[in-house]
Amino acid sequence: MNMLSKGRGWMITALGVVVVVLLAIIGSKKLKDKEQESHFLADVVGVHHLGPDYRIGNFYINKGIGDSVGEGGGGGSRRCCVSLPNKFNPKLKADVRWEVWRAVREVGSILPTTNRVEGIYQAVVPVEQYTDVGDFYVHFFPNGRVRIVISKYSSSGNLHPIRLDDSLAAQQSTSGHKIAAMFSEVEVEEFQRQADEDRKLYGDWK
């Protein structure tokens, strides 16, 4: 498995999903010299098309970097970052995991009384073709479906690859499957092991 070395970031490669647990220096936007020539860093932005009563409680790209998406549909919040090749490769994929919440309101109430988990999903999602650098947009659709596009244009703009009012946008999406928990016990144990290794290398950064 190829991994980013001392740069401590996230990379998506044509060989499949590459995971690097980033526990320190998460805000760094530096790429190694050789990688600067062939890759660019893209902020991760989540957008959902589920309707006003839904939100994405949490989502993760390659088991790590991610965010949440509010009831408004998102598109404004961003997290650093994934490394992508300057030249698009049709084999690019990412592991996406997300949690769908539905707001439950009492009659006449604006604020939700509670939030109900509708499902936790996982999908290996192809990165759609891009010709220019941009941000890494993850679009979530009803029934556990998702798309990834790279764009320098905001999700609310007319030049974004997926229009918010496009009723057919979900037709090109990847279908995810429900999972019992966001991460398995084995994965959590691996995260802890890597965290322990990072503390040995970098100290207790907290």
Mind sketching the topology for me?
Layout (H helix, E strand, L loop, with lengths): L9 E4 L2 E2 L15 H6 E10 L5 E8 L3 E5 L9 E7 L7 E12 L9 E13 L8 E7 L3 E7 L22 E2 L1 E2 L6 H18 L4
Parallel strand pairs: 1-6, 3-9
Antiparallel strand pairs: 1-2, 3-6, 4-5, 4-7, 7-8, 8-12, 9-10, 10-11
Walk me through this protein's architecture.
The protein has 206 residues and is mainly β. The chain has one domain (10-202). 12% of the residues lie in helices and 38% in strands. A hairpin with a 3-residue loop joins strand 4 and strand 5 (65-69). It is globular and about 55 Å long.
Mean pLDDT: 82
* Secondary structure tally, helices: 2
Major sheet: order of its strands? 2-1-6-3-9-10-11
Q: How many separate domains make up the residues?
A: 1
β-strand amount: 35-45%
Q: Any idea what the radius of gyration is?
A: 18 Å
Question: Level of helix content?
Answer: 10-25%
Category from helices, strands and their pairing: mainly beta
Molecular shape: globular
Q: SSE string, helix = H, strand = E?
A: EEHEEEEEEEEEEH
